[in-house]
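User: I'm preparing a small set of examples for a lab meeting where we compare how different chains pack in three dimensions. I only have the primary sequence for this one, and I'd like the structure in token form so I can line it up with the others. Please keep the answer compact; I'll paste it straight into my notes.
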Amino acid sequence: MLKNFYVSLIVLVFLNQNLYAQKEFVLNETELYDKITGYWNGQLVGNYMGFPFENIYDREPLPVFVDRYYDYGDLDTIDVKMNLNDRRSFVRIMADAMGGAWSDDDTDIEFVMLHGLEKYGLDITYAEVAELRKSHVNRFIWAANANVHRLLNEGVLPPETGSKANNDFWYGLTSQLINELWGVIYPGMIDKAAHWSSWGGHITNDDWATHPTIFYGAMYSAGFFVDDIHELIKIGMRKLPKDSPFLAGIQDVLKWHKEEVDWKMCRQKIHDKYFREVDGFRIPFPIMGSTVNGLNAVMALLYGEGDFTQTMGIAISTGYDCDNQAATLGGLLGVMYGSEVIPKHFTHNLPSRGQWELPFNDTYINYSRDNLPNYNKISDIVKRIMAITEDAILENNGKIEIADGEKLYYIDSDL
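Assistant: Understood. Below is the structure token output for the 415-residue chain.
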């Protein structure tokens, strides 16, 4: 009997090891380009949809369900608060003025990091990030990013720029919204995506505030090959420390999602438990807390059930720092389902004059990051990301072959 027990135990260990063994996945060039396009454009849509309502609603969700672009012109017909003192409630005017998409911190820090990866390579260091940020990230920055700028000028280097001792916004969601790029660079390479997401997160944040970054980075990486939302969430959860308060929060949201048909009831439970305090720490500026925002994105992903408009609508209508959650999820759905998951009225009908022929007129205007090109084609940004992704595939035991004139990417995955 004892012998049979040990034999069974060895078999179980062997099966468990092989369950997480390396697998080879294949993407063709068209698929990879399309998914990266979906990532970039999905982020833009979520960013602009959420702009008018960023950091306005917290105690209650928005009184309207945001399933389209709203701006100041809608205030004649709806009773809702908006950011009216800057560009955020004037998205159509901005689209007309820019002739396409424009930079904001949901995409432009990643735009800077893309330049850094081209300059320094995939083994980029914190010292190189310091030089990168000092050259390019000096305006249109807030909270943790603003503190990083100050600390770098004082000679403090990452990861100390994100530490509790130095950055009084260490608890915020900044790390989540500027690091989705790592999951795209490492498709199917979950450990790499999680590692570099954490590495990037510690530039601005510390401790459990980097856990949403790790979670979403892993899901982005897995999303190239997994389109089941519940499975993706499990993959992201496996990369979190067992004692993570964010992991405990996800487990709560999964439970509440089963109990509540209405997402607003789930939102209330998240708010009651995670808005003011996390892991015994009283959040100084809770509307920007990493945990409550990250958990509301999980909620939107679950209740959205893969539908782009519904997912965006919940992510924004829940309130808090809502454009960031919508941008993260918009990019994730773009990776999972490709660029066609984004309804064309979000990418082609934004200007008040006419309609663009290509998504966002294939234009990304950088007006916020110094010493980098102002005019950029989105298609060129996608190709640049693809080039870095190719390097990552080859450096991690993958290979690239040509079949019928098209590249095939063989990815050594730990999915």
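A couple of notes for your slides: The domain at 23-413 is CATH 1.10.4080.10 (ADP-ribosylglycohydrolase fold). The longest strand covers residues 406-413.

User: Perfect, thanks.
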